[in-house]
Amino acid sequence: MKKLFQTLLLLLFAGLSVAYGKGFSLDVKEKSAVITLDRAKTQTLWLPIDNSAKEVKMTVNGSPLFTEPVTVRLAEKKVDCWMPLYLDKNTTRIELKGCKPEYIAWKELKMGKNPNPKIEDFRQHIHFSPEMGWTNDPNGMVWHEGEWHLFFQYNPLGTRWGNMSWGHAVSRDLTKWKQLPTVMFPDSLGAIYSGSAVIDKNNTAGFGKDAMIAIYTSSYRNNKIKRQQQSIAYSTDNGRTFTKYEGNPVLPSTRRDFRDPKVFWHTPTERWIMPLACGQGMEFYSSKNLKEWKFESRFGDKYGCHFGVWECPDLVELPYKDGTKWVLFCSITKDAQHGSSVQYFVGDFDGHTFTCDTPEEHTDWINYGRDNYATVTWSNVPDGRCMALAWQNNWKCCSHADFPTVGYRGYMSLAYELQLIEHEGKAKLVATPAREYNNYFSTIALNRKTTVEGQLELCQLKHQDRAYRLRFDFKESQASLFGVRLSNKHGEYVEFCFDRAKRELRVDRRKSGMVDFNDKFPSVSVAPMSTAEMQSLTIILDRASVECFSDIAAVSNLVFPTESYNHVELYTSGGPVEVNAEVSHGK
Ligand code: FRU
Q: CA–CA separation, 291 vs 215, rounded Å?
């Protein structure tokens, strides 16, 4: 009976392939299909995607971009969105393996105009997100000729992880981002995993003075082999296009967790240094020319948190007291703190070895929120500031088929300035929003000194099409609690609260809106307070993002209110709080 049904379906589709007349024909078999394009020309085929479907293998013959087979979650039962497959005039045939005749995809394939309805419910205004597709880590961040470059882990063919490529976006002010064509797609060495980019001022690699050079992980996996190696590619057109080096990989290996090179120039020893994540440790390699690398040392096997594989290192030198200190960043993939989190170590680096100042069991975090991962810094920042960016998501929640955004998934954090301050006798890393945002938040909607006891309606946030900044400064107070609640008319809210007795800053998103898509999402983030006094608090609200900053802690979270929060309320308990509140928004 099943066979008969399938045969009938096949006959039906054979008929459809003739009837289509939309620029292609289809040949659907029991476990495979072929799409043949009528005319060879540059065009877009829109692939219907079902986030809960299993992955189908797709070979795009003649494509200069997809030179290796890729995977797509071709619509089985429903269409969540259509992803564009840009076809070159050399492509006439697309082969699919692992699909079935009963897929809804066969009647939902479309050529030409974008069939996606415009669903932008949770699109942020000043945080970057790709127009379509999936993103995770920020990659290759480098400032060059007036532009902040952001490359990013990108799946151009789906809204879940896969087909890792390097997407590209640029900004001149860190608030308006422009997405440019994807610069690197998977090749015979593997997918293009995370890495960094530098400007080769002295032409050490021989690709030209001031060439932009990307150093990334080539990640290869098939049924038998899982291997990660380091490769390079160069650009002489300000990052618009990259040429992969023919001598890749520049750091060959057979190891499976050996990734995320974050290269910088070490002036005292006049060499490039590459911190690399290897299993649950960080290794350091050096090179004169970015092409030949030498092992220097390994750090971390006994240090800090080891609840998962270590990823995305960065090593930066920051002013501290009368000198400097080196800070090593380390992302821990899934089970640290509360899922994906970034720990850091403060110490010294002599060009060969990192020595840590804190005891082995000490762990500290860059951000205490749920959505702040893979933090790395920009290279070549003109005024020498240490500027960082993180992926605003968590491996615990992001992969779910029912994630609330449609057609795209993943945001970057705000850009941060990083500094070391002395706290309780130790160097502590503090992140604040980059000063570039002051320009954006130049319209002051409210500036009010007031005393709060119990509850106070502070103001309405009238503009739904821009980001808001809320700042609170306090006079000394005996109150035990001070809170800020952002809400909408559906009763959805997020709360930020200083609890003096517990010396905690808490961010509660349990009732923030859409929270049920993953059981790990409804949560309360907890950060330490520097003293039992309330310090100033800054909150940046950008549609689906709430990032807050105290004097020692940053807490960044995603929220999915079904309608933007537009109401601000303050509350206290245990006494009055005198507060100066300033609310400003973008132009
Ligand atoms: C971190 C990470 C990196 C890897 C990339 C793959 O989120 O797992 O270690 O290079 O994502 O997309």
A: 10
Q: Which of 422, 379, 325, 483 is nearest to 151 (CA)?
A: 379
Separation of 310 CA from ligand 1 center, angstroms? 10
Where the chain has pLDDT below 50, the residues are 1-2, 4-21
- Is the CB–ligand 1 distance for residue 230 below 6 Å? no
Please tell me the distance between residue 193's alpha carbon and the centre of ligand 1 in angstroms. Answer: 6
Write the residue with the smallest CA distance to atom 7 of ligand 1: 137
**137: annotated active-site residue:** yes
Q: Cβ(373)–Cβ(394) under 8 Å?
A: yes
Domains and CATH numbers, the chain: 2-111 (2.60.40), 133-433 (2.115.10.20), 441-585 (2.60.120.560)
- Atom of ligand 1 minimally distant from the CA of 331: 1
pLDDT tens per residue across span 133-146: 999 999 999 999 99
Rounded Cα distance between 354 and 464, Å, is 47
Model pTM score? 0.95
CA atoms 201, 204, 209, 215: torsion sign: negative
Ligand 1 center–CA 44 separation, angstroms: 29
Q: What is the CA radius of gyration of the chain?
A: 25
Which of 64, 68, 61 lies closest to 92, judged by CA?
61
Question: Which pLDDT score is estimated for 400?
Answer: 84
Residue 18: predicted pLDDT: 37
Average pLDDT of the chain is 94
pLDDT attached to residue 13: 46
pLDDT value, residue 432: 98
Ligand 1 centroid–CA 333 distance in Å is 8
Tokens of 166: 């390097």
Query: Which of 152, 217, 255, 260 to probe ligand 1 with, by most ligand atoms within 8 A of CB?
Result: 260
Which run of H or E residues covers position 17?
helix 2-19
Q: Does 260 sit in the ligand 1 pocket, CB within 6 Å?
A: yes
* Listed residue (516, 527, 513, 503) closest to 370, CA to CA: 527
What pLDDT, on the 0 to 100 scale, is given for residue 11? Answer: 44
| pLDDT reported for residue 120 | 86
Q: First vs last Cα of the chain: how many Å apart?
A: 64
Residue with tokens 């882990």: 153
Q: From the alpha carbon of 309, which atom of ligand 1 is closest?
A: 9
Residue type, 128: F
- How far is residue 116's CA from residue 107's CA, in Å, rounded to a whole number? 15
* C-alpha to C-alpha distances, 47 to 28, 110, 367, 473, nearest whole angstrom: 15, 7, 37, 51
Answer yes or no: is the C-beta of 312 below 6 A from any ligand 1 atom.
Answer: yes
CB of 374 closer than 6 angstroms to any ligand 1 atom: yes
CA of 230 to the centre of ligand 1 (A): 14
Closest CA to 183 of 214, 208, 160: 214
Does the CA dihedral 556-560-563-569 come out positive or negative? negative
Q: Which of 50, 80, 137, 508 is labelled catalytic?
A: 137
What residue's CA is closest to ligand 1, atom 6?
193
* CA 193 to ligand 1: nearest atom: 10
